[in-house]
Amino acid sequence: MKESVVVFTGAGVSAESGLRTFRDMGGLWHEYAIEDVASPQGWRKHPATVLRFYDERRRAVLEAQPNAAHLAIAALEAKFDVVVVTQNIDDLHERAGSTRVIHVHGEILKARSTLDPSLVYRLDKPGIALGDLCEHGSQLRPDVVWFGEDVRHMDDCREYFAAASRILTIGTSLTVYPAAGLVRFARHDSKKYFVSPEGQPLPRGFTWLKGHAAKVVPRLAEAWLSGREQL
Ligand code: APR
After folding, report:
1. Pick from 144, 160, 194: which residue ends a domain?
2. S-S: 211 plus which of 40, 44, 117, 216, CB 3.0-4.6 Å?
3. Are residues 161 and 217 in the same domain?
């Protein structure tokens, strides 16, 4: 029976693939107002602005490549039962080879009907335009979770955290709930690690591994795959 590992990621794991984070220097929320581009209100007021915001990010995702951290996380599956719970809407974990990826904030490469949220389409072009309609004739929108909308798969994710013997959290400011609250469901006796380049309040019981994901995660994965716990 393989040991169960939850890898919980935020925008920092994709930073070295060239994708912008949100709250770092130069992050997206220093340039855009959340309510304008990532909220149902913003969508109602100016849908074209919202579509443009996600089109730009989607183009960046399509040009990006998985980095060494994504690849190392995928490599862990050789020895561990890994579930990746990600706040990210990119597909870099999947492209790196991870086979169990849960997107709690949705996926930018998918579009969904504004009439029937169960109608989700894989995008076959980089943009969604006003006038791109679902099969019932309603406007398509990015299949992502906006502020104020329901975050996905939380019950399953809480169970994965509660069952895991190792939790590896990478590149998240842990500021957006309920996703950030998942770390509280980690077992007391599980081994818990937190990868980030600078100090931030750590959830109880987590060991800080200081550094950038593309440097730290491959070293940690190599240690774990060779039977060592620590870097
Ligand atoms: N390696 C590891 N961590 C990094 C790196 C890196 N190369 N670069 C930045 N970080 C860390 C930062 O220190 C910060 O703690 O990644 C974190 C990024 O935090 P945020 O920008 O807040 O991103 P995230 O935590 O994923 O945001 C959560 O907020 O706006 C919403 O829906 C959006 O999913 C997102 C959620």
Report:
1. 144
2. 216
3. yes
- For residue 231, what pLDDT band results from cuts at 50, 70 and 90? confident
- Reported in sequence order, the residue ranges of 21-160 that DSSP labels E, i.e. its strands, are 80-86, 101-103, 106-113, 120-122, 140-144
Residue 194 confidence class, pLDDT cut points 50, 70, 90: very high
User: The domain spanning residue 117 has which CATH number?
Assistant: 3.30.1600.10
Please indicate whether residue 105 is annotated as part of the active site.
yes
Q: Which of 24, 149, 195 gets mutated to test ligand 1 (max ligand atoms within 8 A of its CB)?
A: 24
- Residue 211's domain comprises 1-19+66-105+151-231
Does the CB atom of residue 212 touch ligand 1 within 6 A? Answer: yes
Is the Cβ–Cβ distance between 119 and 138 less than 8 Å? Answer: no
Question: Per the residue annotation, which of 70, 93, 103, 105 is the catalytic one?
Answer: 105
Q: How far does the centroid of ligand 1 lie from the alpha carbon of residue 230, in Å?
A: 24
Name the residue with tokens 């929108």.
141
Question: What does the pLDDT look like over 86-138, one tens digit per residue?
Answer: 999 999 999 999 999 999 999 999 999 999 999 999 998 999 999 999 999 99
Strands 140-144 and 120-122: unpaired
Pocket lining: 27 vs ligand 1, CB cutoff 6 Å: yes
Ligand 1: does its nearest atom lie under 6 Å from the Cβ of 142? Answer: no
From the CA of 87, give the closest atom in ligand 1.
Answer: 34
Give yes or no for residue 75 having a pLDDT over 90: yes
Name the residue with the closest Cα to ligand 1, atom 29: 176
According to the model, what pLDDT value does residue 221 have? Answer: 98
Residue-wise pLDDT tens digits, 48-58: 999 999 999 99
Distance, CA of 113 to CA of 120 (rounded, Å): 7
